[in-house]
Task: structure prediction
Amino acid sequence: MTAMPEPSLPQPSSLLPSFDPATALVNSAQMRRLEEEIFAAGMPVAALMEKVGLAAFAQLQQDFPQVQRIGILCGTGHNGGDGLVVGRELRLAQKEVKVWLGKPDLKPLTANHARYLRALGAEFVERVEALADCDLLIDALFGIGLNRPLGDPWAGAVEWANGSGIPILSLDLPSGLNDQTGEIWGCCIRASHTYALGLWKRGLWQEAALPWVGRLHRLDFGIPPWACLAGAVPQLLLNPWPHFPPDPPLDTHKYRQGSLLVVAGSAAYAGAAALAGLGSRASGVGMVTLAVPAELKGLIHSTLPEVLVHPWEGIPALPPLGEKPFQAVAVGPGLGETRRRLLESLLQDWAGIPWVIDADGLNALAEMGVERLQENGIQAILTPHLGEFRRLFPGIPLADRMEAAQRAAAQSGAVVVLKGARTVIASPTGECWVNPESTPALARGGSGDVLTGLIGGLVARRRAQLGQSMGIAELLSCACAGVWWHAQAAIQLAGERGLTGVDPAHLGEYLPKALSRLKVAGTPGLAPRK
Result:
């Protein structure tokens, strides 16, 4: 029987929608502008609160089907009103509901819901400790826009809730979390689940928010097509498939699948070159050439027998670009002390193809000045971790990682991949994507080398398919595809081998199997792991 072919990936079309409610990441000012537009068109505030509360109740029933006693920590504003609508539905479903009101001066709509919930038999308690017998706590203290540390009585309630051991569901975002940066205002609810209302708040997807947000779910309250935000906003990489190069046609051959040059390795960091080679092999690129110190030639041939090796002593004398039709170059992993002289040499002759720069390539670029890329007309993808980013862009603060990556991309003219538990991919034209799911198993030396080779191979493939022309949009998509694929493969491998089993060599070998499984599944898992 003839084997069935794997399903083809969707073809890239319009890769960068400016606003998609399912993926958009907004700050409090943007969310309020959108809500005001909806209210101005005739939607009553009370009706929107109903939609939000009913959606939260429906999701709560799925996530917590066994709870019987629910405590609500209620603020004075509309976030408190949302919680009280949920409490009303819980009472009507014959659940036991207790409410702690931090202060009595409720907004009128919130006060109406509190009055009706009393009429339904909910117990209103004076001390937050009276919620100790509950199965679930609902954090409805503060929504978006908090701009100062929590004071009394809120700080005490948060401290008690976090220490209670009771699961906590936060409405919109955990109270005390900065909705822009993901940092906390002194203290913060440590939620087990967070239901984002309407749109994702960007603070929820910042790396600093990871200890506080728990499992994330967005509640869609029906944003009409005309209610949108002007310009591009950061987006979650929930649908990565449009970013992948198309599957090759049946009549393809290796030269039509792209050729990648990887410049990597040194005596001290021999493995970095091999790991970058493993990543490039997995990408599906047609040809890989590794430029490495001569002493590493045996290692590369034994690890990657199909790879061409260009051995060099001191500084590599690479052939002129026209003599070797490479579609991309990946440079940096494990270069060691030769990094700056090597990069200076490459800058002279290799400006005609896109670059992927990592590790010691980034360190050399930091010494030389990142402006050298634009001065030499080089289109590049930079893949710094936090320390490398600080050296490359010392004037850019990192409190808001999305904004930092966008500023760095604009300054350098390159696509910037700011690596971490929530990797951010930003373009100099303003687009920004956040990889929603990763694993601490990737926090190992060498994982980034695999990613460098993988992205480099994707760039070479895509450029070969385009017939040599390639713009920033395509570079951005290759970076998005590589980051997502790399993370998803690590998640799968951790599921099979445990967190300690995801060493970079196994990861590089596992990438093709992971992608095959992901293509069959068709969509990524959208629930981020804690």
